[in-house]
């Protein structure tokens, strides 16, 4: 006689591990990096170095939080480094022209959001691939910054409030670090807990399905580039405040660090799956590697090679292990 | 088993007699499509289709592959905007502006490709586009609880509601798509091949669901290649061929053979 029995349910822990495998693996990788640099150098784990690391990681974390939204929609924004440079230069020019710095901050944030939305319009409404639009943006925005500054660095003077944002600290913690963590927390809540975040994930998982259930798919697609624009402006302002000057040569190669941080954190380049916690860990890992290699007196050129190798490894893991694990290939059918 | 198929033998009966049976003569159609035209590039997907849909009836829509069934029903669900023709809903001339417009008019559709988001969990897919919001945030707990009720009401068994849809079987995915369309008080429920991946018991559940919602006055459109199912739940069957509607029959006036001939385009019966 055959008995009809129900399948047993595996342990909830297994499900949890499977679901969070990528965040756990980047957390593990981050710890390995920390241990490695802590044993190889005397200074890595000192309070001063950690604060310095956090201050340097802040612009990356801010833009990577926004980039997580973009990549979750299966998009990409290559222009963030150039946008940072443009805002960086514009802010210095505006302050030098005598505009009060709080007003400059508002103007720059608005300009960043507008620039991003303009790119988003080409991507969402004109259906030009994000790669192409933002590659053009990468060239155009850096070019405008160069044109405006003629390649010179523009000093920021008599704006102590402004430079305090980049150099100051509250309770010993650098203000950029505090601001970047705030941005990451907001990004986490929006992506994970709010309707807009759900729309971003849905558009990335299946754009047509999102449209068919009445979501404003085009607007969502365009809006995430507004977010990277806004975040890039914020990062550009913080960098200007830290360095006390604006330059068209700021943030060269910045987009690579940002994208590496996001992808390393486990956000899927195929869209539909994004994690801010992973992005935070990815950012810290990238920053720790950069910082640690310098402390080890390794050639700065070597840092680029290591960062590149890590991007490759991360994307490899991301596409191989996760595409098969979650059967993501099916969604394109 | 196939009601009607064995009892009726005459073919070529006057199938265009409007709404006999349950539908009171002269009743106003809930949906009335006239001269619907839709082209995709060089493909004339629909070449002027008329279709009426009455409250409380199930209309079967059949036809060859690429006949235009999905395209016609997608127009009704706001997914495509037609290139020509008119649409009346409850006697009112409307131009659907998009899927959200159709949803607001209680038109729901189970898509042939299911239109699920693979990386979102079961509850999230059921509430896709109509998330429950509390104090500005997603109320995931409420959605999970209601999702459980929605699935239970349709006899769908999915043990782990927080599983991503990508991890489910083909039939489970189809069941979720059906639950999503059927659970929010639709007035018009369109099902584009809802049973293609379902097992015996699940097909029965879908047919029972159709019977149940019909009684409450819902208009159902059922597209399927399982012709025997049509004879069990449908009141009327419309046949499409190459972007046109070629025939319309009350179920009691037709049978399997007749239907097959209509679908393949045998001129003698039309
Ligand atoms: N989005 C689209 N773009 C281009 N052509 C399309 C599109 N949708 C449908 N078509 C074309 O319109 C015609 C009708 O397609 P439709 O999907 O409505 O057929 P169907 O009757 O649902 O067929 P099946 O039984 O195979 O589902 C086909 O020739 C198809 O190629
Ligand atoms: Mg079809």
What does this 3D model show about the protein?
The complex is a heterodimer of chains A (333) and B (270). Helix content of chain A is 73%, strand content 2%. Chain A has 333 residues and is mainly α. The C terminus of chain A is likely disordered. Chain B is 29% helix and 25% strand. In chain B, the strands form 3 sheets. In chain B, strands 6-9-10-3-11-12 form a 6-stranded mixed β-sheet, with helices on both faces. Chain B has a 4-stranded antiparallel β-sheet with strand order 2-1-4-5, with helices on one face. Chain B has a single domain, classed as Rossmann fold. At the A-B interface, helix 9 and helix 10 of A face helix 2 and strand 8 of B. The complex binds adenosine-5'-triphosphate (ATP) and magnesium ion. The site of adenosine-5'-triphosphate has 12 residues of chain B, from strand 2 and helix 1. Chain A: Keywords: Cell membrane, Membrane, Transmembrane, Transmembrane helix. Chain A: Pfam families: BPD_transp_2.
Summary, kept brief:
Chain B: Residues 31-267 form the ABC transporter domain. The complex is a heterodimer of chains A (333) and B (270). Chain A is mostly helical and 333 residues long.
């Amino acid at each position: 006689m055959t008995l009809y029995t129900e399948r047993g349910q595996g342990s909830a822990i297994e499900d949890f591990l499977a679901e969070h495998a990528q965040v756990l693996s980047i957390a593990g990788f981050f710890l390995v990096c920390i241990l490695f640099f802590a044993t190889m150098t005397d200074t890595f784990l000192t309070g001063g170095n950690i604060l310095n690391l956090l201050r340097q990681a802040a612009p990356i974390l801010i833009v990577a939080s926004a980039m997580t939204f973009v990549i979750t929609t299966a998009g990409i924004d290559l222009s963030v480094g150039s946008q940072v440079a443009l805002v960086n230069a514009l802010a210095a020019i505006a302050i030098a022209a005598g505009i009060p710095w709080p007003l400059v901050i508002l103007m720059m944030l608005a300009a960043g959001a507008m620039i991003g939305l303009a790119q988003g319009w080409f991507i969402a409404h004109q259906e030009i691939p994000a790669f192409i639009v933002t590659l053009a943006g990468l060239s155009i925005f850096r070019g405008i910054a160069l044109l405006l500054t003629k390649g010179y660095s523009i000093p920021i003077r008599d704006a102590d409030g402004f430079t305090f944002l980049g150099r100051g600290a509250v309770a010993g913690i650098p203000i950029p670090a505090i601001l970047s963590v705030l941005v990451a927390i907001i990004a986490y809540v929006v992506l994970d807990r709010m309707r807009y975040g759900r729309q971003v994930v849905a558009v990335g998982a299946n754009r047509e399905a999102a449209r068919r259930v009445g979501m404003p798919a085009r607007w969502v697609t365009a809006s995430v580039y507004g977010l990277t624009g806004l975040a890039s402006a914020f990062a550009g302002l913080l960098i200007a405040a830290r360095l006390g000057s604006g330059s068209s040569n700021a943030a060269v190669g910045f987009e690579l660090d940002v994208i590496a941080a996001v992808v390393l954190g486990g956000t899927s380049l195929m869209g539909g799956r994004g994690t801010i916690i992973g992005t935070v860990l990815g950012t810290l890992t990238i920053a720790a590697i950069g910082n640690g290699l310098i402390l080890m007196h390794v050639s700065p050129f070597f840092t680029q090679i290591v960062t590149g190798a890590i991007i490759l490894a991360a994307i490899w893991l991301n596409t191989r292990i996760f595409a098969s694990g979650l059967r993501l290939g099916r969604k394109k059918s | 088993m196939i009601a009607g198929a064995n009892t009726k033998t005459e073919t070529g009966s006057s199938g265009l007699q409007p709404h006999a049976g349950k539908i009171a003569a002269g009743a106003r159609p809930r949906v009335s499509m006239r001269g619907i035209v839709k082209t995709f590039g060089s493909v004339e997907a629909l070449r002027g289709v008329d279709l009426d849909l009455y409250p409380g009836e199930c209309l079967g829509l059949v036809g060859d592959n690429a006949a235009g069934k999905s395209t016609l029903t997608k127009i009704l669900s706001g997914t495509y905007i037609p290139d020509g023709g008119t649409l009346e809903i409850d006697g009112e001339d409307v131009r659907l502006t998009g899927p959200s417009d159709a949803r607001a008019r209680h038109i729901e559709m189970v898509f042939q490709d299911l239109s699920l988001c693979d990386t979102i969990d079961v509850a999230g897919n059921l509430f896709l586009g109509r998330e429950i919001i509390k104090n500005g945030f997603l109320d995931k707990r409420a959605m999970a609880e209601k999702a459980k009720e929605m699935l239970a009401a349709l006899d769908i068994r999915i043990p782990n509601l927080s599983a991503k849809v990508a991890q489910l079987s083909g039939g489970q995915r189809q069941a979720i798509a059906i639950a999503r369309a059927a659970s929010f008080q639709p007035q018009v429920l369109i099902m584009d091949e809802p049973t293609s991946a379902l097992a015996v018991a699940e097909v029965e559940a879908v047919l029972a669901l159709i019977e149940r919602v019909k009684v409450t006055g819902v208009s159902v459109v059922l597209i399927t290649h399982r012709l025997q199912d049509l004879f069990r739940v449908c009141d009327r069957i419309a046949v499409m061929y190459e972007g046109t509607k070629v025939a319309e029959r009350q179920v009691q006036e037709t049978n399997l053979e007749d239907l097959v001939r209509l679908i393949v385009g045998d001129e003698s019966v039309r």
